[in-house]
Amino acid sequence: MLPWFQDQFPLYLAPMAGVTDTVFRQLAKPYGVDVMVSEFVSAEGIFRRNEHTMEYLDFVDEERPLGVQLFGADPEHLGEAARIVIDWKRPDFLDLNFGCPVNKVVNKNGGSSLLRDCPLLERVARGVVNAVAPFPVTAKIRIGWCEQTINATTTAHILEDCGIQAIAVHGRTKAQGYGGEADWDVIAQVAAAVRIPVIGNGDLATPQDVKRRMATGVRGVMLGRAAMCAPWIFREIKHFLATGELLAPPPLDAQWAHVVEHCRREIVLRGSEVHAMQSMRTQLMHYSRGMPEAKRLREKFARVASLAEIEDIAATHLAEPALAA
């Protein structure tokens, strides 16, 4: 069994393309994340030694335990890519993406596309497990392709039989994308159907949500959008589970310190202030949620081009009388 399931209920940071790079993960870790998963990485890109693809594999030891998530549909290429990742980066586990609903991935027969083709999904999973054994491999799935073809328990049985050691289940179908409600009844069915740990994912916005969903039989939970906007939610969840008390979010000055530090580290990582700040604009929009005057902040974030600008926005925002009161 993966060691982080032996004596705790682990909180996972969900892999989110364009969001959970090594900088985001390093900053989120001290808030109480137990397990990290990289942004998804194309197995074909690794197989072909694509330099840009390899950059997505970067991480530091402070992020451990960390898994690298791969997507693709060619069992042989996936197996070789998995061996390359292990030899080059030595993560703590590999994760297979069978859940991404984005059309540019699905159209290449990757992500949730394989939920429509269980024989291919089985060949992919078994191929990777056999290629890297005894190195641990996990997987992430959705509950099905659409409402009429919900097959998560079948998929989970296949993956367990292939040697997958844990399964994260997003409680939506591919057709839902990120809309509608996550179906935790199906997640509970999966948790009851297999012996390996099941990690629940979907509509976990508060510590109370996590506490309520523990009753479904999952062995851990994975947070995505809530963590993207407020990574300190992991600390709030752990405090609530331990004490039953709700912990207030960090004060506004601490939130701004986090935002500024995130920008600073992205600049160092990318080596270009202009490019880093352009890439940070979307993440800054996420951070603004829950902040006072969020709409006005987003207008400023849409044009921000330097660290100095972010520092000025932070100073002005904190100095406003209504916020200081």
Distance between the first and last residues' Cα:
51 Å
- Looking across the biggest beta sheet, what order are the strands in? 1-2-4-5-6-7-8-9
CATH architecture label name of the largest domain: Alpha-Beta Barrel
User: How would you sum up the global shape?
Assistant: globular
SSE topology string: EHEEHHEHEHHEHEHEHEHHHHHHH
Share of helical residues: 40-55%
> What ranges have pLDDT less than 50 throughout 5 or more consecutive residues?
none
The tally of beta strands, per DSSP, is 9
Largest sheet: 8 strands, parallel, barrel
Question: What's the tally of helices?
Answer: 16
Please write the CATH class name of the largest domain: Alpha Beta
Nearest-integer average pLDDT: 93
The CATH topology of the largest domain comes to: TIM Barrel
Strand content: 5-15%
Q: What radius of gyration results from the CA coordinates? A: 20 Å
Number of domains: 2
Spell out the CATH superfamily of the largest domain.
Answer: Aldolase class I
Name the structural class.
alpha/beta
Please render the helix and strand layout as text.
Layout: E1 11-13, H1 22-28, E2 35-37, E3 41-42, H2 43-47, H3 51-55, E4 66-71, H4 75-89, E5 93-98, H5 103-106, H6 118-132, E6 137-144, H7 152-162, E7 167-173, H8 184-193, E8 198-201, H9 207-213, E9 220-223, H10 225-229, H11 233-243, H12 252-270, H13 273-288, H14 294-301, H15 307-319, H16 321-324
Parallel strand pairs: 1-2, 1-9, 2-4, 3-4, 4-5, 5-6, 6-7, 7-8, 8-9
Helix pairs in contact: 4-6, 6-7, 7-8, 9-11, 12-13, 12-15, 13-14
